[in-house]
Amino acid sequence: MSEVSTVENAGLVPAQRRRPSGGGGLGRYLVIRALLIIPTVFILVTLVFLLMRTTGDPITAAQGGRLPPEQLAERIHAAGYDRPLLVQYGDYLANVLRGDFGTTLSDNRPVTEVLVTYGTATLELAVYALIVAFLVGIPLGMLAAYLRDRFGDAVLRVFAILCYATPVFFAGLLLKLVFAIKLGVLPVSGRASTGTELNLQLLEGKTGIYLVDALRLGDPAAVVDVLQHAVLPAVALGLLTAGIFLRLVRTNVIGTLGTEYVDAARSRGVSEYRLVRKHAYRPALIPIVTVIGLQIALLLGGAVLTETTFEWKGLGFQLAEYLRARDFVAVQGIVALLAVIVAVTNFVVDVLAALIDPRVRY
């Protein structure tokens, strides 16, 4: 055996020999994750279509018993719902690729118009809820880690369990009862008061995001009014995720506090508070990024109940209304869009996680 090979086998030539053969760079990882969006969205859209058809055709579901059989049959034939299911599915996929999700049966509106009109309201609520989740979950998680195994830690852990175990509609009702009805300090429902709503609707080039439109309006009273209406629904929905963030941050901060470099800092006399605040919390935030994608799906699911509880007219509120009307064309379009949002959000989260922590690329 040559001297060079002996040195290599002894592990004295590091670098290339030790790199994992299956590893890949950031570019390859991003391309793979982007390509995975296509089958994910395809499967989700297909499942939505098939589940909606388990009840029969949408027209019979919405109008059955209200129209004479002859008129019902005419409408079914005109809409093409009497054709083979495979043909309907092919047409549906072709329309979706063109951005056409059909026309609602209850109010005869293009589903894309419904998505654009009410989607901004749901987006605004989800952003508010995430802000609440971060502001509550991360600091309290760090505090729980600092108070590990003490009374305060136990209280915070119970609080976290209550946050994600309490049904969001029940939390919403409690918040309304205390802060809107009992104390009267916050509005009961809606996205803004009637006067502010009218002013925002008259604004040219409105975005549909009330806070942005209120700022563009230049009226401080309108901005305050919009924020006051957002507090209770944002807290009700945000606490659902805040409890998960609290437990996750606590667990990871405690794990980081047990690492060697933290022990070295502790041996130099660094206080426990400074260790948590300066050294342990940043590594503990990496898992938060990786679970945000899952939390977006949770927030969108909770938005249906939150928007209904607070009459926040977003996609969740409209979805409940269309379900009552048995308008399965509208339901199909809204659920398909929510599925696409979840898939794309998970991709974005994967990208952020790969940029923060290169280990996820392997």
From TrEMBL:
Q: Name one Pfam family in it.
A: BPD_transp_1_N
Q: Subcellular location, in the record's words?
A: Cell membrane
Q: How does it sit in the membrane?
A: Multi-pass membrane protein
The annotated region (Disordered) lies at: 1-21
Q: Which Gene3D superfamilies match?
A: MetI-like
The portions of this protein that span the membrane are 26-52, 125-147, 159-181, 230-249, 284-305, 329-356
Q: Is this entry keyworded Cell inner membrane? A: no
UniProt keyword annotations, A-Z: Cell membrane, Membrane, Transmembrane, Transmembrane helix, Transport
Query: Which residues does the UniProt record annotate as the domain ABC transmembrane type-1?
Result: 119-353
User: Principal place where this protein is found?
Assistant: membrane
> Which family does the UniProt entry place this protein in?
Belongs to the binding-protein-dependent transport system permease family.
Kindly provide the name given to this protein in its UniProt entry: ABC transporter permease
